[in-house]
Amino acid sequence: MQNTAVKTLQRRKEHHIPVRKIVTYLLMTLYLLILMAPFLIVILTSFTSDYELGAYEFHLFPYEWTWEGYELIFTLDPNAVNGVPSLLIGFFNTMWQTLIPTVGGLFVSTLVAFVYSKFRFPGGRTLFLITVLTSMLPLGAFGFVGYLFYMNIGWVGGSRGLLPLIIPGLFGSAGTIFFLRTYFDSALSNEIVEAAKLDGAGTVRLFWSIALPLAKPAFLAQFLFAFVGSYNSYSAQLMYLYDEKSLWNLQLALSELTGMLNEGNGYNNARCAAALVALLPLVVLYISMQKYFIEGINIGGGKE
Hints:
mainly alpha; disordered C terminus
């Protein structure tokens, strides 16, 4: 009798559905729907004809699917250069204007973080403290001062406007240095460094063969942060490159195009299409780097 009662109780537990878990999943699903609703509306609007958007009351799905919005942003573009749409030019400009300072700055930040983490030298703590404090400065407030500085040294005007956008980024980022130093402290043990030194590895060998491969998840996570920040940059490009249409980045080209479309009546589908075209590269980048991004955020995975 006792065994039968125990088995019955176990069966009830197996078939029991926890109410708390169901409520949690329902709330998360509701949150996901609320979060994705604006994106869904933008996607569906981009495939709706402008006539349908203006002639009927609001409805979620279009009666007739069309590529009209995407055709407009590539054909109705007053900022096209030699017949090439500004969005296309802006995309390629964004790639090289973003990748050069991002990759170069990340390499320098990784090297500095490795030195701060694994080497002890006079004044090291003070230098690291100064580095961290610079990340707390409101750099946006120094935009005009920076413009005057670069103008005085001849870095403003024409293609020279690229220099303030690329050169400073090559020296790394204080926030990235802080993050990677913490990563090296937890993921790269001092015993491994000492063992490599005993085997004859020098500082350069330590960095290239041990530290850099180990920091790959954190490096790629910081690359994603830096790339997105530079990809979405608008004010700096507006300040230094506005007179050079051939050097516009994607955000500047998108802003000018949507501003022109806002002056006319309608073109809601074209504005939504332009926003999706600008968003698509970031979605692809995140999906392809999602694994490394999550690994890089979870600091402290190293074992002694």
